[in-house]
Design a protein that fits this description.
Blueprint (H helix, E strand, L loop, with lengths): L11 E6 L5 E9 L2 E5 L2 E5 L4 E4 L6 E2 L10 E5 L4 E5 L6 E3 L2 E3 L1 E4 L3 E5 L2 E7 L3 E4 L5 E2 L2 E2 L3 H13 L6 E4 L6 H11 L10 E5 L8 H6 E2 L11 E2 L1 H4 L4 E5 L9 H10 L1 E3 L6 E3 L3 E6 L3 H6 L5 H7 L2 E4 L10 H11 L6 H11 L8 H15 L3 H13 L3 H7 L3 H24 L4 H8 L3 H10 L7
Parallel strand pairs: 5-6, 17-24, 17-25, 18-21, 21-24
Antiparallel strand pairs: 1-2, 2-14, 3-4, 3-13, 5-7, 7-8, 8-11, 9-10, 9-12, 12-13, 15-16, 19-20, 22-23
Helix pairs in contact: 8-9, 8-10, 10-11, 11-12, 14-15
Length: about 450
């Protein structure tokens, strides 16, 4: 339905003969690969980013005061080696040209501070992406997603901390929950999955939310309470929007994770904890660390494994599978082809800024309210445009149209009422969860007279 991710050629299918006559198909990429010759030795450049910086956790460590903690990264794509600056203070240079992001296709010299790094692209090699086309609720057939699923399958049974990065709406929390669920031991007791949204916790209460507090520790502390770390003991703590975590709280969190114990606010006793940490962010934490807004030691403690979820516009070939999955979950599997046909006809140029979350919202409305392509067109036009003159003129001509408009209005009112309640009236958070712009969210709140404060 669309191109694969820029930087990768179309997947090349092969067949592997397994036991008996059973055949299984596997997809793979061809990428250039390469090496980097830097102070300290020679380093392989692969599809996963190789970070260059002053921080001890970087892949290539350069002890130079002109080099930022995380300065730049190198990774292999089909055309060559991608060089991406990570918001460094003094810049990354190819010759005399300062680059933010570029592709090296011939041996080149990279200047990082006072250090020269020789980058040598090499012959293309195959990168297998595996068989899985889903992981938990995540669905996709594209090579990029197959490789993500392969990584998630490998790390899920381990105690490793995982950082999931990607734009709003790409499914980061779903990935974290799927990792947690896949780690469940059959026959064992259920383990807690505790979510902390670092972007919505008040700074004055952040320490209490994470570590808990004793009665009387501060004004309003009327009883003794556990924090998120203690609640997640024996299970998983998911830190959503990790990049928003207050800076003053970061060393305390790092200490708690390293020592595996917490002390409540106002308390004097340390309590042992056994917690696996999963985190997600849409921010570029390399830039945040270079700007002094995020600690590199906490980053490397949490990002033992980093997984990037690509935006939907870079994996449009996954749309049919996602549509089928959403319709099936909604109990409307028979509407999948009609919904997909509408998307292909009417949204072919849409770049899906809200990513998979936006697609799921569109498909959910269509699959629930429509039973034929023309009905889908009317319903989704109304859902996207509201009660504008054009939509009203089309829908008000028949009793069926009036009923349909009422159904859409009911859906909108219920959706945004529940969203406002779930986000406690925070319009920015409502926009993030719905995959919409803030002014669109406010328009729907005004339209249906929803008081976000209540």
């Amino acid at each position: 339905m669309g191109p694969t991710r820029p930087g990768f050629i179309d997947p090349v299918p092969t067949e592997l003969l397994t036991m008996g006559d059973t055949r299984a198909r596997v997809l793979h990429w061809f990428v250039s690969g390469g090496i980097a010759k830097a102070p300290g030795g020679t380093f392989n450049i692969d599809v996963d980013p190789l970070v260059v910086g002053r921080d001890p956790g970087a892949g290539i460590v350069i002890d130079d005061p002109e080099v930022s903690a995380l300065h730049c990264e190198l990774r292999a794509v089909s055309e060559g080696i991608v060089v991406k600056d990570l918001g460094s203070t003094n810049g990354t240079f190819l010759g005399s040209i300062r680059v933010r992001e570029g592709i090296v296709v011939v041996p080149s010299e990279l200047m990082v501070g006072a250090c020269r790094i020789l980058i040598e692209p090499q012959a293309k090699r195959r990168v297998d992406v595996g068989f899985a086309d889903h992981f938990g609720p995540l669905v996709g057939n594209s090579p990029k997603m197959r490789r993500v699923f392969g990584v998630l399958e490998k790390v899920a049974p381990t105690p490793l901390s995982v950082l999931v990065v990607g734009e709003t709406g790409t499914g980061k929390e779903l990935a974290a929950k799927a990792i947690h669920d896949a780690h469940h031991v059959p026959g064992g007791s259920s383990r807690p999955f505790v979510v902390v949204d670092c972007g919505s916790i008040p700074p004055t209460l952040a320490e209490s939310i994470l570590f808990g507090h004793e009665k009387g520790a501060f004004t309003g502390a009327t009883e003794r309470r556990k924090g998120a770390l203690a609640e997640a003991d024996g299970g998983t703590l998911f830190l959503d929007e990790l990049g928003e975590l207050p800076l003053e709280l970061q060393p305390k969190l790092l200490r708690a994770l390293s020592e595996k114990q917490v002390r409540r606010v106002g308390g004097s006793v340390f309590e042992p904890i056994d917690v696996r940490v999963l985190a997600a962010t849409r921010r570029d934490l390399g830039v945040e660390m270079n700007a002094g807004r995020f600690r590199s030691d906490l980053f490397f403690r949490i990002a033992q494994v980093r997984v990037e979820l690509p935006p939907l516009r870079e994996r449009l070939s996954d749309i049919p599978a996602i549509v089928q999955d959403v319709c099936q979950r909604a109990g409307r599997a028979e509407h999948a082809q009609a919904v997909l046909a509408w998307i292909e006809q009417r949204m072919v140029a849409h770049d899906w800024p809200g990513n998979v979350r936006e697609l799921v919202n569109v498909v959910s409305v269509a699959a629930t309210l429509a039973d034929e392509p023309s009905a889908i067109d009317d319903v989704l036009t109304l859902a996207r445009d509201g009660d504008g003159a054009g939509g009203a003129a089309r829908a008000a001509t028949t009793a069926f149209g009036e009923s349909k408009r009422a159904a859409v209005a009911t859906f909108e009112r219920d959706y945004f009422s529940n969203l406002a309640r779930r986000c406690k009236g925070n319009v920015s958070e409502m926009a993030r969860q719905s995959g919409m712009e803030r002014h669109h969210v406010r328009a729907y709140l005004r339209k249906h007279k929803i008081d976000k404060a209540s």
